[in-house]
Design a protein that fits this description.
single chain, 151 residues, mainly alpha, 6 helices, flat
Length: 151
Amino acid sequence: MRRILILDRSVRITFHALQIGSIFLLFSGHNQPGGGFVGGLVAGSAVSLRYLAGGLDEVMRVSRFAPWTILGTGIVVAAVTAAVPVLFGDPVMQASLFELTLPVIGEVKVASPLFFDVGVYLVVVGLVLMVIEAFGDEPQPAPEQLEEAAG
């Protein structure tokens, strides 16, 4: 596969900026526009750019996990986050607020919808990776075509 140097270099630079932007959208989604879905779409677009620049091999280097593992983990995280309040007698997806004191940052307030958004983020990224893997690979010839080519 022939690669275009300018596209390759610009994607390598913008990929990291898009990933940081997607994480920002993930965490700012409760008070401003954004959230898990939008952040996942931005991360998915960054992965799509990697595919355009380097093909499927370049996309496979982005994640060390299989796409269905990422998607499945996201579904489990979102489902558990939605169901945990029921165990305490609250309605499904009841929001809770936790206050943590971190050594360098100080006091941080974390809302439980953040965990649901993380699950949605992982579902969207996993789905984009699965679509790219499914449709981005070279089509394999049918067994009949292999027999015709050999004989």
